[in-house]
Amino acid sequence: MEQLVDDIVLAFRHRLIEVGEEMGQARTPTLFVAAERELVQMARELAAEMTGRILQRVSDDKARRKEALAAVRARAETRGIEVRTERDRVTPIRTLGGQTVRIKTAYASSRPRGDQLMKRRGKDGTGVYPVLDQLGIIGRSTPACRLLVSRAVCEANSVDSARDLLAEGGMVIDHKAALRLTYLVTEDALRARREAVRRLDTGVADGPFAGRRVVAAVDGGRVNIRKRLPGRPKKGGRKRFETEWREPKVLTLYVVDETGKRDRSIPSVIDGTLGDADAVFELLRFHLLRMGAQNAESLVFVADGAKWIWRRTEGLRQALGLAKGAFHEIVDYFHVVERMTELSKTQLRWGEENRTAWLHEQKRRLKAGDIESIERVVQVIGTRKDTDMETESEYWARNRERLRYGWFREQGFPIGSGAVESAVRRVVNLRMKGASITWTEEHAEGILHLRAHAKSGRWDELERSVLDITGWRPSARNPKRAA
Q: SS in 3 state form for 351-414?
């Protein structure tokens, strides 16, 4: 290895000397910037050259080939697929610095046992580079490269913006390649999440939420989902599709102290799904268990008044095994005030001064937790419009104990769901929602998952889960059936 490093450095030695002299002789910011950028570019090229030579060296190692081939064969065996070695192939690999190296390495193809005639490639192809697969090199890119590209694509406000940011770092990548690498990561990330949800039942006893005051919140956003339509493409090759608005459901979990102030030492958990209400609560249960919330001092659930949310909170408490005294339900204060404001507008004979005074008095009662007084007032107002009276009376009676804001504030519990509304804005609205922005359902779910980790400061967790599951998934060409 020492000789390999010496050879690579020697190849760059003269250029390094030249650039160093240019930097030392620079007399203006422009010349210094140019020299520094050239130096950094050389460092990228040096890293790519070393990566390529090491990969080639590993690929030529017979013992390593045998070990890697045995691993992919064992994986294929579980699906009844036979892996057969073929001639070595040369494949390009994009590295973290953006440079591409070409490696000649072992290749193996997969077929079902007894298959002689074949139709077409499976979704993931029919073959694998065993040595490269062992290192997580798929899609003609290193795993570090894919993770970098996917983070840029999910965090920037468009793919073009992500490409510009990557280009400033030395990685020039076209639009399709950026999306292809991103979707490789999203596919692995969602698969890792599904596996983790399926495996986790009892929870982590000593997780970061154990013994803490935990707040959970759920809210929805909007994204435009497109679906392919059958039939010939339009003139110019554009494929036919239809769109519909869907509600991605976002959750957030965080810790507060005795005064209700958020504990920044424990990063928030943000995640989301395009699934139904049961799906988001299953995801919520998973995150609470893996963070040790079943042993929390208390769990506060804050949300708006949507019935689909509150119908499932008791099931969540039971799934976590929390005592009723440790589980608190709170309807977001600001949604309640908004509802009262709309109710006051139904009183057409009231002037603006009377309406303002009435709202001020009801908010005072609301903050004190005097819900019974508000219910009586609502019933009086509702007699003027019977349809509203039934709706309002039911709403206040159903949420009565979730509106005791006076007691909640004394306990240091948050009474607003601003945290999850902010998460919806940052994760969904600023990237996934906008004019002419449409997504396939699978890709929307993946970008939502990646962006949630990026915005919550938990990208390292996502990287670990992706790297643990990244690798070739055995597939094979389908055999033709005999007539």
A: CHHHHHHHHHHHHHHHHHCCHHHHHHHHHHHHCCCHHHHHHHHHHHHHCHHHHCHHHHHHHCCC
Q: Is domain 207-331+433-439 given the CATH code 1.50.10 in the classification?
A: no
- Backbone torsion region of residue 269, taken as left when φ is above 0, otherwise alpha when ψ lies between -120 and 50, otherwise beta: beta
Question: Which strands form 327-331's sheet, in the order they lie side by side?
Answer: 269-273, 249-256, 213-220, 298-303, 327-331
| pLDDT computed for residue 68 by the predictor | 95
**Residue 420 token pair:** 């999850």
Helices marked H in 116-240: 130-134, 143-155, 159-168, 175-199
pLDDT in tens, 82-119: 888 889 999 999 999 889 999 999 999 876 555 444 44
Quick one: DSSP state of residue 480?
A: P
Secondary structure of residue 321 in the 3-state scheme? coil
The b/e string for 203-226 (b: 16+ C-beta within 10 A; e otherwise) is bbeebbbbebbbbbbbbbbebbbb
Percent of the chain predicted with pLDDT > 90 = 65
- For 136-178, the pLDDT digits (tens) are 999 999 999 999 999 999 999 899 999 999 998 889 999 999 9
pTM assigned to the model: 0.87
